[in-house]
Design a protein that fits this description.
With 317 residues, the chain is α/β, with parallel strands linked by helices. The protein has eight helices and twelve strands. The radius of gyration is 21 Å and the shape is globular.
Length: 317
């Protein structure tokens, strides 16, 4: 088959763009948030080629026993850059990587580490075994060369205790759920920094692809009651007071559930529901409309089934 000049030029342009992305590098810029703790801020954006999928916040903790990472990003390339930057910063090797939950922006970088040093809740590991290949496939389709060489690797260590001690620096490990089926939150006892994973968003609309809103509310109540001084959220800026981000996340999911319930009762279809007004109090939240529309796709079918049952079938409770 003979290709036209236009087709050849289009192919060359696609190849050049792919090569350019392959030459890009992740910028790992740790920000000190407490004594021996740094945050690497994720982009307040959806996953896209322009950000390489680096949208989740990462925590780096220096301990007498070595460096601890909380989450490791979307790809092996990101995680290798993160590991190198963290070890330069602390002067010690990475000895533990916690993966807070199954979503790919937080944990597909596991491949850059020995599985035995990567720890997650048993429910997270089970979910990754069940769903990780699908997430990986989706990330490759979206991010292309950013993902090159990334393979799905499962954590080799289960979080089954409430504390881990790293040479005298103690981390409280909270086994929760709601944003996903298993959500790990971590409190550094030395500084009171609460690392919330995606149970907590701050000035960034929460995402709900695997959410159970009732369990999420219960987990937020637990985090609010847990002794801490500040919150490092899964997405968005640090909350230095330790309350605002938790309250804001709870406010959004409460509003979201009620708004979508009202939309179902009003007979709105999913497209119409994605266009409902967002209250002014959420005006500081990045990607609010985007996450509302995603949440409609995640939550609306179940709401319709519960609120608009077929008359010849038992009502779902």
């Amino acid at each position: 088959m003979r290709l036209s000049r236009r087709a050849v030029l289009a192919g060359m342009a696609t190849l050049s763009a792919s090569q350019a992305r392959a030459a890009d590098a992740y910028r790992i810029e740790p920000i000190a948030v407490a004594d021996g703790i740094w945050m690497v801020r994720g982009a307040n954006e959806p996953i896209a080629p322009g950000n390489g999928g680096a949208i989740a916040n990462i925590a780096i903790i220096a301990t007498p026993a070595g460096t601890v990472l909380c989450d490791c990003g979307p790809s092996i390339r990101y995680a290798r850059s993160l590991r190198a930057a963290a070890e330069r910063l602390t002067g010690t090797p990475v000895v533990r990587v916690y993966v807070t939950h199954l979503h790919p922006d937080h944990g597909l970088g596991i491949a850059a580490f020995e599985p035995a040093m990567v720890a997650a809740l048993p429910g997270t590991t089970a979910a990754l075994a069940r769903e990780g290949a699908g997430y990986s496939d989706a990330m490759y389709r979206i991010l292309e060369d950013w993902m090159r060489g990334t393979e799905l690797v499962l954590p080799g260590r289960q979080v089954t205790t409430e504390m881990e001690d790293f040479g005298g620096r103690r981390l409280r490990l909270l086994a929760l759920s709601g944003h996903s089926g298993a959500d790990l939150a971590i409190v550094d006892e030395a500084t009171g920094v609460l690392i919330g994973g995606d149970l907590v968003f701050h000035d960034r609309a929460p995402s709900t692809p695997t959410a159970d809103l009732d369990r999420w509310r219960a987990s937020l109540d637990r985090l609010k009651a847990e002794p801490h001084r500040c919150v490092l959220p899964g997405h968005g800026p640090l909350d230095p007071g330790g309350v605002e981000a938790i309250v804001q996340t709870r406010d959004w999911i409460d509003w979201l559930e009620q708004a979508l319930t009202d939309a179902v009762k009003a007979g709105l279809d999913m497209v119409e529901a994605g266009r409902i007004a967002i209250p002014d109090r959420f005006s500081t939240m990045a990607v609010a409309r985007y996450e509302l529309q995603r949440s409609v796709s995640h939550l609306y079918p179940a709401l319709e089934a519960r609120l608009l049952p077929r008359i010849d079938r038992p009502r779902q409770e």
